[in-house]
Amino acid sequence: MGKIICLMGKSSSGKDTIYKNLLQEKDVTFYRIIPYTTRPIRSGETDGVEYYFTDDAGLAKLCAEQKVIEQRAYHTVYGVWNYFTVDDGQIDLSKGNYLLIGTLEAYIRLKEHYGNEAVLPIYIEV
């Protein structure tokens, strides 16, 4: 049975660098968990690669279908941008280990959804 490794840490702690290095590791295979967001797609991004891009109506639909595992809202000068993890079939723990960058709240919600033994927290502190 695989694990979900949840990398956490403050801004600029190296989470993204560690994440990218772990994904390139040849001795261990990690599957990516692609999060969803309501923020606008940026130049150079591809839907389904960095994020699944949706709008508030898409988020509301996923919430109504009880598929949202965890959600964070950031109030920006452009409005509220939501980032969230969805139970959309991309996580199959019988396949292996998964890797994501998250928050403490994301870790707690993933643990509630998949079970204590399935989610491994790693907090990065510099």
Task: Please report the total strand number as a whole number.
Answer: 8
* Total helical elements: 3
Could you state the oligomeric state of the chains shown? single chain
In order across it, which strands form the biggest sheet?
Answer: 2-7-1-8
**Strand portion:** 25-35%
Quote the average pLDDT: 96
Which series of helices and strands comes N to C?
Answer: EHEEEHEEEHE
Silhouette: globular
- Rg (C-alpha, Å): 15 Å
Helix content: 10-25%
Extract low-pLDDT stretches.
Answer: none
- SS class: alpha/beta
* Biggest β-sheet description: 4 strands, parallel
Through-space gap between termini: 31 Å
Q: What does this molecule look like?
A:
This protein is α/β, with parallel strands linked by helices and 126 residues long. 24% of the residues lie in helices and 33% in strands. It contains three helices and eight strands, in the order E-H-E-E-E-H-E-E-E-H-E. The protein has helices spanning 15-24, 56-64, 104-114; strands at 4-9, 30-32, 36-37, 52-53, 68-76, 79-86, 97-101, 119-124. The strands form two sheets. Strands 2-7-1-8 form a four-stranded parallel beta sheet, with helices on both faces. The chain has a four-stranded mixed beta sheet with strand order 4-3-6-5. A hairpin with a 2-residue loop joins strand 5 and strand 6 (79-86). The longest helix has 11 residues, at 104-114. The chain is globular, with a radius of gyration of 15 Å. The model has no long low-confidence stretch (mean pLDDT 96).
